[in-house]
Amino acid sequence: MCVNNKLCPCGTGQSYVDCCGALHSGARTAATAEQLMRSRYSAFAVSDEDYLLRTWASKHRPASAGIDAGDRWLKLEVLATENGGLLQNEGVVEFRAHYVGGVVHERSRFIRENGQWVYAEAL
């Protein structure tokens, strides 16, 4: 799926290239836990399994991210954030990720690993 000239799937209103695309390509890293969560949602939307695995805490990283290329992701709603800021090392983001056929509602814990935000686990 080519999303380069389209709005980012994460819902910020920015172009994909200037938003999550820059994180997916490695041009930038996530500054906050919420930004990482948004970029991971976008990675599901554009089927970027490498990025998902790269941003998974090493202690919990699976062999596969479980992307189904047939899934069509529709919308992300960030419901709440706890910590996860620029100078913090842990945070929680609660969200709803809508896709054709359902909704994923999760509270996710994020931590810094080697100075970078990574997804640790669902709470």
Automatic annotation (TrEMBL):
Residues 32-121 form the YchJ-like middle NTF2-like domain. InterPro entries: NTF2-like_dom_sf (IPR032710), SEC_C_motif (IPR004027), YchJ-like (IPR023006), YchJ-like_M (IPR048469). It comes from the Bacteria. Coiled coil: none annotated. Belongs to the UPF0225 family. This is UPF0225 protein ACFOWZ_25330. It comes from Lentzea rhizosphaerae.
